[in-house]
Amino acid sequence: MTEDDLKRQSRRGPFASLYGIKDQHRALSTFTVIFLVLAGITALIVWLVCRPHDPKFKVVSLVINDFNFTSPPYMSTTMQFTVVTRNPNERVSFYYDQLSAFVSYKNQVITPPLSLPPLYHDPKSTVALSPVLGGGAVPVSVEVANGLKMDQSYGVVNLKLILTGKVRYKGGVIRTRHYGIYVNCDVSAGFKQGFTGQVPLLGSSECQVDA
Q1: Which of 123, 124, 152, 171 has the least C-beta neighbours within 10 A?
Q2: Pairing between strand 74-86 and 138-139?
Q3: So where does this one cross the membrane (predicted)?
């Protein structure tokens, strides 16, 4: 080391190296913050361009194979709904997980919840689901039992098909976290006691989707 080098080092003082390390850390922190902000802005722009819309669900057919009541009261039924779901997005696909389906009447469940397999839904595509629900005896209130019997005597039964689960959105390289999805399908069916098979659907069977 020359004499000039020793003089320069003495002018910087013993804390020069410490200040240099702090400057490096500050520069690294600034770069990290800027990178995260730019990445977030880019993701937001892509998400806004994709503009995801909720999926559409509609009940298109219903088959009722049995509809029985026993004391104290219990009821058992087997129903097969065919539900068509449409993805209206051009760039966004859906991943469904933990899906389950059940039927309710006057806000009381009348079929045990049925777990459905995971489902991937391509953009601008339509998928049909045909779960078979019921099969076992379910306890119901007297009001529900009497209401269903009265509806059968009139020839019109008003039911709700409920689908619940988790959904993820995927647009380009962006994939969201899981969101809850709740699908409520009001179904009016022409059905009388003793009849089995496919029943006519009365009115619109479009479903309300909360995702």
Answers
A1: 124
A2: antiparallel
A3: 27-50
Q: What pTM does this model have?
A: 0.76
Give residue 162's identity as a one-letter amino acid code.
I
Please tell me the distance from the alpha carbon of residue 160 to that of residue 62, in angstroms, as a whole number: 12
Q: With beta carbons less than 8 A apart as the criterion, state whether 151 and 106 touch.
A: no
Bridge partners of 196?
none
* Spatial CA neighbour of 167 closest among 90, 54, 3, 46: 54
Q: What is the DSSP string of 97-165?
A: EEEEEEEEETTEE-S--EE---EEE-TT-EEEE--EEE-S-EE--HHHHHHHHHHHHHTEEEEEEEEEE
Q: What is the CA radius of gyration of the chain?
A: 30
Q: Confirm if 190 and 42 have CB atoms less than 8 A apart.
A: no
The residue assigned the tokens 């000039």 is 4
- Band of pLDDT at residue 66, cut at 50, 70 and 90: confident
SS3 assignment, position 192: coil
